[in-house]
Amino acid sequence: MLPRERVMAALRRETPDRVPRFEVWIDAFVDEFGLPDTAAAHVTFGQDSVLLPSRPLPGSRAWQSGVDEFGRVWRNGQYADGVVDTAADLARYSPALERVTECFDAAATEAVRRRYPDHCHFFGTHVGPFQAAYLAMGMARFMLRLADDPAFVTALLDARTEWAIALFRQAVALGAEVIVMGDDAGHRHAPLISPAMWRRFVLPCHRRIVAALPVPVIWHSDGNILPLLPPAIEAGFAGVHGLEPGAGIDLATVRQQYGDRLALLGNVDVRLLCGEDAAAVRADVARSLAQGGPGGGFLLSTCNSIFPGMNPAMVQAFFDAQSELIEGSGLAFQRHDD
What we know:
Blueprint: H1 3-11, H2 38-44, E1 49-51, E2 66-67, E3 72-75, E4 78-82, H3 87-92, H4 106-115, E5 120-125, H5 129-137, H6 139-148, H7 150-173, E6 178-182, H8 195-201, H9 203-212, E7 217-220, H10 229-235, E8 239-242, H11 251-258, E9 263-268, H12 278-292, E10 298-302, H13 312-327
Parallel strand pairs: 1-5, 5-6, 6-7, 7-8, 8-9, 9-10
Antiparallel strand pairs: 2-3, 3-4
Helix pairs in contact: 5-6, 5-7, 6-7, 7-9, 9-10, 12-13
């Protein structure tokens, strides 16, 4: 199978020739390993998918300092709070939908597609309506307003849903064959809101997003989102990404309960990639493959991403283990040391 065919078969919950390798966000170690760009990293690390490039809106203060175009407050590159509190704030901090074209360089996107024509071309970013809403308002204000002013929260969720649809449609127009929508909804022990409130406020937004797109949509969330998997199925998601073991998610159990209706992605514990035990990394890759792989519908990745602060040697051990256990071969890349 071509890499694209392998990914699509797994998202249809079919059995491909081997388990697809589908790390979503991988760019943290591009320079560390001496690679030219993120797309090259996906391919060099043996992934079956390639993330299409995107960029913040011109002039955005996201990941810098100040208030960005969505009302999120940033301090020294870290999210700090949100400022959206009124209808006027919502209008001020909701960019015109036609500006989604500014988030992409069409020529750069086409260049990636031409370089890697056999890979699955996907787009992934954290613009899910729930997360976008609570970041815009600030968590405390958002949670209080769910009870005190549900009409305003609904209006904010609707605005962020419209942005997500417009952004994802633009990505599809530029060649994205799969969408990964980050919409973080859980902490270590439970969802951030009850399943009943999720169905009332968020499920309609997710349904709209899935229905508006002609390609499979994968929902990413950290945390314990087990009670939200039935609504994820109702929303029409092709799969769910993350499945964080540190939040008590057992892949074998999720597969038994929901694997016939959702493709499952992730589950390798990112905490191990921050440590120093390569054997433990390999063992966790083997566990994830054993629990998720048989019968199809599983795509291997970490439970989150390859992020700054990980041990580069353990990142390499992770990808080495994939190659050994899935393909029976070693990787052709080595860490770049100056």
